């Protein structure tokens, strides 16, 4: 029986995956906002300390997006704190408990040539927009995957980036009108249902993937040797996130 931890595991793709894995007999720890505020580095670190001593699969599916720039109580831009910083902190604290197994992160850009990291403004204080925040976060997630083996050279752990593309997961609820209705209807009409996306992920977790980084865009492999996966940029980002986390958890 595997022990599976899923952030964002109470709804959407994460919730559907949690239900599927429980039915097959896995021990699933599905985490939602009631368990910890992942925009808070302190709460994220405290959450990691409460999680099981052995973890076989860590699924990182939590995210939050807003059309307006939202600043947390720690002075962090909310979407970056939840989607990027919390994932970095959890991986750095939980991977030492893993002997083999898989880290599955939803979702990096996965090879799409859009977006960039604003190194001089990671919190997007000057030019925030929902699109810019979303794409910057996705680029950052690619780099977290790219730097994983460098940070954990002795861990035989698979790190998988998965971009599900359009899924009818309810993320439109964070938008204001009229975009909430437009995006919601588009996702309902054209998007993959969470259950179908979760089925893909369940099959992926059963595959004999190599240790280190692999990336997929809705099931199709994506090369991880392009400029979006630059090792130097990955180290630079990890150092920035280490400093940001330490500043806010003491």
Automatic annotation (TrEMBL):
- Oxidoreductase: present as a keyword of the record? yes
Identify the domain of life: Bacteria
Key words of the record: Oxidoreductase
InterPro entries, sorted: NAD(P)-bd_dom_sf (IPR036291), SDR_fam (IPR002347), Sec_Metab_Biosynth_Oxidored (IPR052228)
The protein's name is: Uncharacterized protein
Source organism (scientific name)? Paractinoplanes ovalisporus
